[in-house]
User: What shape does this take?
Amino acid sequence: MNNVIKIRRYAEAVIVAVRGLCVERGGNLVVKDVSFGVAPGEVVALLGVNGAGKSTILRCLTGLLSPTAGELEVLGKPPTADPEYWRDVAYVAEEPSWYPGLTVREHLDLVRVTHGSEADLDAAVDEFGLTGRADATPLALSSGQRRRVMLAAALLRPSRLLLLDEPEQTLDSGFRGALARRLVAYAQGGGAVLLAAHDLEFVAACGARRLIIADHALTAE
Assistant: This one.
């Protein structure tokens, strides 16, 4: 009965609704009957050991991975590859492909212009600590600097949902705090954030509601 009540509550006003999600790989369930919702104004963190299923859940919500069973809704619709879907959703996971001939500033400006953002490009470059590397190509950056470029691109453009797979990885502790404050501000503006993370201090700084994944199932909420 509790699960029914939760799912009905999620359906009332949510950005993400996950109902009975199961994902099978090689004959084994890697996600088992997971249900939760994420409302506007929330930061929600998926926590668990490597291999628990956190990244798999995020990939299902992007439409990059098809579930074996269950229902997924983002903004009232199943995840798709349509441009309309990706105008509302920003995803940061594994390192993307870069345009070798474009600088950091040009990559960010491309995202800004493509999504019709009126954000201040110079302010974004400065906020993410990239001013001294703005004219370098991403391939010439450290892994932490490239991570900052990816996060800057996700936050520079308009969106209603951020899906972040371990956004804190390769970032120094000082910038993790700055990122947490940025995510809190995003949620306070009416967006929703769903992230997978390991750093509990970062999760606390985000004020995130915690969902514990263990043995591929949701064990605590």
About this structure: The chain has a mean pLDDT of 91.
